[in-house]
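Design a sequence for this backbone.
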């Protein structure tokens, strides 16, 4: 599975760049088939800059993905759903064959 952060939304009234929302994406592919899931995750704005604040320009994608997973996005569940979607593309339960008289 490939996890990516698509965007970060920050507060405009602070110089520190507090991240309050992000867009995430989980994708996978096999051969010609690809699928994925995406969503957003909100983070509470801190009351002050004390504690574990990390400046915006020091953030990494791995850090933000950790926030996503610790803020209610179930990594295992998302990956399982994406895997089921991929399996359904590779092994469809229904197909549309050519009409028998159109050959």
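Sequence:
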């Amino acid at each position: 599975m490939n996890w990516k952060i698509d965007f970060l939304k920050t507060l405009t009234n602070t110089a520190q760049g507090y991240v309050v929302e992000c867009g995430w994406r989980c994708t996978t592919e096999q051969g010609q088939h690809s699928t994925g899931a995406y969503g957003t995750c909100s983070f509470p704005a801190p009351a002050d800059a004390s504690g574990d604040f990390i400046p915006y320009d020091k953030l990494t994608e791995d850090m933000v993905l950790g926030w996503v997973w610790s803020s209610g996005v179930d990594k295992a569940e998302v990956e399982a759903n994406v895997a089921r979607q991929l399996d359904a593309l590779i092994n469809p339960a229904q197909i549309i064959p050519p009409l028998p008289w159109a050959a």
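Residues 2-94 form one domain.
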